[in-house]
Model the fold of this input.
Amino acid sequence: MQALACVVLAAGEGTRMKSDIPKPLHEICGRPMIDHVLRTLGELEPERTAVVVGADADEVCEVIGDRARTCEQAEQRGTGHAAQCALPGLQGFEGDVLITYADIPLVRSGTLRGLVEHHRSAGAAATVLTTEVEEPTGYGRIVRDSADAVSAIVEHRDASPEQRAIREINTGIYVFRSQALVGALQQITPDNEQGELYLTDAVEILVAYGRTVAANVAPDAAEVMGINDRVQLAAAERVARDRIREEMMRMGVTLIDPACTYIDAGVSIGGDTVIGPGCHLQGETRVGSGCEIRSNVTLRSATIGDGVLLRDHTVIEDSAVGDGAQVGPFSLVRGDSTVGRGCKVGSSAEMNRSQLDDGSKMQHFSYLGDATVGEGVNIGAGAITCNYDGVEKHHTEIEDGAFIGSDVILVAPITVGEGAYTAAGSVLTKDVEPGSLAIERTNQRSIDNWAERMAKRREQHEEG
Ligand code: UD1
Ligand code: CA
Done:
């Protein structure tokens, strides 16, 4: 068995993206393109991986992390030159080198494995992954000789009208024997329309030396599409989203309207969970089994337990919801908050940096900020924590079994003791003793005949 190394070319300027963000960092389903590529290559368990990056590519290197060694291509002189820049990263390696581009994010590891196997069984010096497309504009064309063997790759710009009619294109993914790669790269020249060094010219060079260059045709052209501009980025996004949806449904998740459900790469959802239309599941979101996620719910790096009901238009961000809890509609839970098991968070409620312990209820229009709430607490409609004094944030503690009446304002820092009651409409600034009732409001007065007096005044006003 030959050893395998991988090389990713990621140093291009990505001019066609018209972006200040380096192309490898543009995202598909919530993950940078380079991340998709490295995860897929990781599945091949290569002996080593090298990524060619441009100068000042700190953010790209950050995403790469320790998954690959990075080689710098200071000046963008073409894919052949980028491959030359990868050679220091391959120092001492002998075997097969899989080269791919950072802008081919959708390729599957199975396809790459097939390419490597094809290359090895053909005993080729190089093997190109090709595919047939309806619209080959922009891609390099695969030129074959009379015996159907690959003889060259001609870039679109350099192709003759006859060559432009070829629909078999270069995907930009190749396997080279390491020595053949080193040899061919020494001979490429920039005599083309762009004046660049093309990696694709290595094919013609190897053929001229009588070496075998094989082609492996990928059956699914969508998988190997290259992303050069934002239109292609959106097209790739659609393909990737469809894949995720299909995978989820096959694993037992019901998507009421798959086309209107947006699930990022890396999200996990348990079986028998039903997701309504217009939902967005983003980041490192985990959803348990048997949940009902109604329409237009957004989960952003959320952890949702089993059997949870999230009503329409609820947003859960960087927070967790425990088993059997219910939230919404129109509620927001954010800032590392926790909704405990069996809790109920009503409509238009908000939690920020707060914990609601098991079995507690927080009713409509209520707000908890910087609060720790015990078990079995009831927070009435419209009750809020005043956690911000204009300068600092303060903490509210509500102990087990407390009852917070409607429209109570808890001015933090404050503690409501275990089992205590707070009367509706009270503005509380002092701690509440366990088991007591805190009430802060003026006694109700009644003024007789008020309506009659008003009617008289109105009459006088109209006459005058
Ligand atoms: C390339 C291929 C083309 C193929 C297509 C598939 C060449 C000459 N052409 O064209 O045959 O059909 O991909 O999508 O290879 N890069 C560098 N340094 C550079 C230039 C590019 O690292 O100096 C990297 C880019 O970051 C990119 C990749 O190489 O990830 C491909 O470059 P790009 O300019 O997108 O090539 P295409 O025109 O798409
Ligand atoms: Ca490209």
Notes: The chain has a mean pLDDT of 97. The pocket of uridine-diphosphate-N-acetylglucosamine (ligand 1) is lined by residues 9-12, 52, 73, 76-79, 81-82, 101-104, 139-140, 153, 155, 169-172, 198-200, 226, 228 (CB under 6 Å). The CA atoms of residues 311 and 329 lie 5 Å apart. The first strand starts at residue 4 and ends at 9.
